[in-house]
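Would you be willing to look carefully at the protein I have copied below?

:::
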Amino acid sequence: MFNPVVIAIPFFAATIALEVWWSNRTGANVYHRKDAWNNILIGFVSVAFGLLFGIFISAIYSAVYWMAPYKFPADAWWSWVILFFVDDLAYYIFHRVSHESRLFWNFHVVHHSSEEYNLSVAVRQSWFSGLLHWIFYAPVMLLGFAPWMFVIMHGFNLIYQFWIHTKLVHRLGPLEWILNTPSHHRVHHGVNEKYLDKNYAGVLIIWDRVFGSFVNEEEEPKYGIIKPVNSFNPLWINTHSWVEMYDAVKRRSTLGGKIRCIFGSPNMDLKDNL
């Protein structure tokens, strides 16, 4: 199945190289060499895992689509317009849950664990996200959008999000009210108290404005996660949060406590010692 993200890999590589060159030329110093190469390695392995998981996910999407009572016509322009909004809202929901539930944060933390902010961070993605992320997108097929339509639309949504991982673009005027921009996404990656768990948007920042999760960039963000991973080992970066959750679950003495530890806030351990 045609996947725009895979096709876009040469574009990602070229623009990362361009940002490195510009950063060095201007003295912006937005790259840490070891971190950047680590991001790229993690990104390539995540693509390989994504292709593997894609076989199983495609089967699920096809089965769900078969059950849809209505099928949107792929040759109608309005189907694609509706799909754009549906997909972008589904991404917002997925992204917000990935910050508010530890189970899903265990995948997403990989992306946030870099303490740098540049285009290479965009490709720093979980190797194992294909295990569960489909849960958020299967309803799109149940609404009547063919899986191949979703893959194309969602792929372009993710490609859009690549370029907003940069410090080199500041504000975009009136577009800041509608689109997710580098400024808005820098906030999302910040661990400053006022920035935590804000600006979940994919393409349209309007979801954050509507659902009360929007914050403007004011002070310079500090990047990373609350409990730094302090490692350049790509396997540990992809698994450390699972190990921490397992240890936390063992410490809980009640079934309810164990369940809250898995599905509750990722920061539960920082808030209590249960």
